[in-house]
Amino acid sequence: MMKKFLMLLLAVMTLPIVNGTEANDEENNETNLVYLLRIFNNINSTSWVHTYKAFDEAEKMEADAILIHLNTYGGQVIFADSIRTKILNSKIPVHVFIDNNAASAGALISIACDSIYMRPGGNIGAATVVNQSGEEMPDKYQSYMRSTIRATAEAHGKDTIITATDTIIKWKRDPQIAEAMVDERVSIPGVIDSGKVLTFTALEAIENGFCEGTANSVEEVLGLLKLRPYELKTYKPSFYDSIKGIVTSPVLQGILVLLIIGGLYFELQSPGIGFPLAVSIIAAILYFAPLYIDGLAANWEILIFIIGLALIAVEIFAIPGFGITGISGIILAFTGLILSLLNNVDFDFSPVDSNSFLTAIATVFSGIFGGFILSLWLSQKLLTSTGGPFSKLALQTSQQNDKGYVSVDTRIKNLTGKTGRAVTVLRPSGRVEVDGVIYDARSSDEFIDKDEPVIVTDFSTAQLVVRKIDD
Questions:
Q1: Alpha helices by DSSP H, 208-274
Q2: Of 32, 121, 171, 252, which is the most exposed, with the fewest CB atoms less than 10 Å away?
Q3: Hey, what CATH class is 26-239 in?
């Protein structure tokens, strides 16, 4: 009897262990897929391309978590903002391990993540917007950054703490503390005095809710996140991803726009087909190809650009003067370049924010105007300046007329007042025949068709200046 009782008692005691502990062990043995993205350089267009690709791969693999291994002194705000938006909109939890530094743009990215872990001795903060020389930008830039970093902190919501006497609602990440990382005027008692930009050490960040804990490695972070056991998938950028990051930077895109327009301009100024056209075509391929592959530049947007160039060519070669055709061509060419930079879907521009639109316009126009000024400065420094690295390629001496240097036969000046005919179309330059001899000439007022009667009115820059004789 006693033996049966002991067996029954043992069975009862064993039952919850089987249903509880073994079930939990089975649950804990489920492997978590963690996607690791390393950002160890300044935040720029390449960082954004790598982040976009990594998040896309993580979503396709149905990862359980994304971990950003971060060590950066900052970078460009526009790309940091794009990365933080990607993090905030991610369906997969995103965590960051700050390996020493998360300054400026790095702080903005870190605050966007669901949890922050730091190496002991690490730092986070100092997010004031500065230019390339390290000088603080005007307040309108700081205002945008203050608003952005506050909104990023607010996105994590609030905690409700219930005590015996009261209910306390507290921000998980205090927006005012985040703003103090940008604005030196913000003063928070016990945290930062006015006149200083806030930067936290790891322990200070923990005390103020901007860090969940310290760790010395990725493996320790994953342990603190209770993601063990785990399978770690590390993002490895392809050669194309790295090249695309360089090609899609606003600075290089501006230069490519300059080469496209400048190459076409110089090609139209010279006879035949030569080097300027080749430069323009290569620049156009480098500009549109990455955008087309990623779906930003649609077929119709590239077609608009090509139609614009065709209309400009028709205006130059076929239609006298400069009117609606040329203006339409310029508008279409500019529109094609700008639309290719926007993330619109056909004619739906709802996914495009005002910041992206303004950036696209600034990129195209700065590439044309700013790049043109830069090219003039470089040509002066490199070619014409004495001692420049390529100064020997350019003629540095002048040939004076009083020393016998005469480039053309000045006797053609005597042709002023004589009549002849146009041998080619003058638009405005071409060739004319006077007294049975063919000369280079240009029209003084309008395009002149072939075989039209002309009269020589002047002589300039080794050319006859002519005008059409009215019937």
A1: 218-224, 239-247, 250-269
A2: 121
A3: alpha beta
